[in-house]
Amino acid sequence: MSSAVRIALAALVAASLAACASAPAAQPDLTPPPRRPVDAKTQLEYGAPPAPPPGRY
């Protein structure tokens, strides 16, 4: 093998090892933000929010 091919092969092996050694990317948080409480102005304009559903027996 010529020296250029050996250097390229060594660089490829080093790059693949570096890619495997790095930590995986963190997963994005897909949970929706909490609902904001209804303020007094919104209650006057749209009415009071509906009552929560009844609990289980």
Per-chain topology:
Layout: H1 3-21, H2 40-46
Task: Describe the structure in your own words.
The structure is a single chain. The chain is an all-alpha fold. Helix content is 46%, strand content 0%. It has helices at 3-21, 40-46. The longest helix is centred in the first third of the chain and has 19 residues, at 3-21. It is rod-shaped and about 80 Å long. It starts with a helix and ends in an 11-residue tail after the last helix. The model has no long low-confidence stretch (mean pLDDT 81).
Give the class from helix and strand content and strand pairing.
mainly alpha
How many strand elements?
0
Q: Strand count, sense and closure of the main sheet?
A: none
Order of helices and strands: HH
Defining traits:
single chain; 57 residues; mainly alpha; 2 helices; 46% helix; 0% strand; rod-shaped
In short:
The protein is 46% helix and 0% strand. By secondary structure, it is mostly helical. The radius of gyration is 30 Å and the shape is rod-shaped.
